[in-house]
Amino acid sequence: MYDLHDIVEMKKPHACGANSWEIIRMGADIKVKCQGCGHIVMMSRRDFEKRMKKILQHAEHDQDA
């Protein structure tokens, strides 16, 4: 499953040509940031789950906290 700060690939590339996005906010809506141009997009969780293809990189979390 995806989590905050994971890098995901969407089914369609962004207009800038990049296809990797960082999850920067999670809740009822998901906010993602394009890794190519920095454009931020907010969409419903349902739309995000339909449009996400796969997780490219999981975020590294501290286990010492």
Would you spell out the secondary-structure blueprint of this structure?
Blueprint: E1 7-10, E2 20-26, E3 29-34, E4 40-44, H1 45-51, E5 52-57
Question: What this model shows, in words?
Answer:
This is DUF951 domain-containing protein. Pfam families: DUF951 (PF06107). It comes from Lacticaseibacillus pantheris DSM 15945 = JCM 12539 = NBRC 106106. By secondary structure, the protein is mainly β. The protein has one domain. The chain is 11% helix and 43% strand. It is built from one helix and five strands. The chain has one helix at residues 45-51, and strands at 7-10, 20-26, 29-34, 40-44, 52-57. It has a five-stranded antiparallel beta sheet. β2 (20-26) and β3 (29-34) form a beta hairpin. The two termini are 22 Å apart. The model has no long low-confidence stretch (mean pLDDT 92).
Give descriptors for this structure.
65 residues; mainly beta
Q: Count of DSSP E strands? A: 5
Q: From N to C, what is the helix and strand string? A: EEEEHE
Percent helix range: 10-25%
Give the percentage of residues in beta strands.
Answer: 35-45%
First-to-last CA distance: 22 Å
Spatial order of the strands in the main sheet?
A: 4-3-2-1-5
Radius of gyration: 12 Å
Mean pLDDT value = 92
Low-confidence parts: none
Number of domains: 1
Category from helices, strands and their pairing: mainly beta
